[in-house]
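no rush on this but wanted to send it before i forget. theres a chain ive been looking at and ive put its sequence and its fold in token form underneath. i want to understand how the tokens follow from the sequence so walk me through it. thanks a lot i owe you, the record is right below:
>
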Amino acid sequence: MNEVSIEQSNRVKQSVTSDLLSYLSKCRFEYWPALSFGARLRIVIKSYAVMFMGLFISSLLLKAIDSYVPALFHVPPLMHNDIARLMQSMHGSALTVFLIVCIGAPVLEETICRLPLSFKPRHISLGLSLAALFASGFKLKPEYFMSGNFVVPLLIASSVYGIVQTYLGNPDRYAAERLSLNTKRGFIIFSILLFGFMHITNYQPLHYQVWFLYPLYVMPQILMGWCLSYVRLRNGVAYSMLLHGLTNSVPFLVFLIGHHH
């Protein structure tokens, strides 16, 4: 390993936590292409440690708040076990749920929310078209494909991809290197909030009389999006997918262990 790589690896060991706490305000987006796999993996592990602590604390606070929701607002508790519900809908197939929760969801959500943070036209186009696909009702279920209802969402997604790629692909209109740091920061914050608010659907059926509570309930996902965007900007989107999959795997394994006992 050359001196530059050693210096950068030492910098990773010393600065991951402080960088994670300050990267958005300072807009430090360097990619560190010379880092070794081990150094990048350390970034993932340290980021996971910070994220885990934040998710643990925020989950405890939300559970405390949720205990008062029925009495105050006359609706059922909003929190529930998403994995248990998914297991039930998949007829108890742990393998299917693992593929969805630990692989499928991380890949899709990172493609939508973090891949475009390269600010490359094709990445932005792909992320927005996938977002449009699922927002228009697309479902990854055999019966959905058998019904033929997937045609309209696919047409919408294809149109979004074509329009965005045509517009951003013109260098006279758009060039990533011409974007200001404030524009990049705003785009990153938007992707973090989008990731968080996407997870409001986890609380279905929604009770609209307590709509103002849902942004509070997705604070763990917003925290998660913040950490994932950091890893994506530092290491690349494959590593944010890895961290996302790791984060989803822990509650899945806890559920399986508890379910079998």
User: Anything to note?
Assistant: The chain has a mean pLDDT of 86.
